[in-house]
């Protein structure tokens, strides 16, 4: 037996035992009373205001076979008194990526936002294909929506 095999074999029962250590408690009706609350917050920034919005608190719609949250619903959930239709929008991923840093990926207007969706579990930003947007607009792990003030 190889030296690595002598180490691995004795550890297998320990690893298997650890897998069964989770305790599930049942309530009086026999249903699992443990709760896992999933959250995924996206911060919406408009002017000098920042409002976090938990995607899991918003209603989803079906899009290309998955459940997504419309970006317009995220904006509405902020409760901010902002004329959203007058803004342009940029996005920030968890790693700092912004579409606007790429050639040809300027901030988008509100018409485009109406075809933008977020997957609540990942924060991935996807777009309706009819918009014809470049791949740089598809942001994985989005954490921020910047609603940019209109030019004056």
Folded structure, characterized:
The protein has one domain (41-148). The strands form 2 sheets. It has a 5-stranded mixed beta sheet with strand order 2-1-9-5-6. A 4-stranded antiparallel beta sheet has the order 3-4-7-8. 18% of the residues lie in helices and 27% in strands. By secondary structure, the chain is of the alpha+beta class.
Name its key features:
single chain; 152 residues; alpha+beta; five-stranded mixed beta sheet; four-stranded antiparallel beta sheet; 18% helix; 27% strand
User: Which regions are unreliable across 5 or more consecutive residues at pLDDT < 50?
Assistant: 4-33
Rounded radius of gyration (Å):
22 Å
Secondary structure class reads alpha+beta
Please give the count of helices: 3
What integer is the average pLDDT?
82
Counted beta strands? 9
Major β-sheet profile:
5 strands, mixed
Helix content: 10-25%
Q: Helices and strands, in N-to-C order? A: HEEEEHEEHEEE
Number of domains: 1
Strand order of the largest sheet: 2-1-9-5-6
Percent in strands? 25-35%
Set down the secondary structure blueprint.
Elements: H1 3-19, E1 41-46, E2 49-54, E3 61-63, E4 66-70, H2 71-77, E5 88-93, E6 108-109, H3 110-113, E7 116-118, E8 125-127, E9 142-148
Parallel strand pairs: 1-9
Antiparallel strand pairs: 1-2, 3-4, 4-7, 5-6, 5-9, 7-8
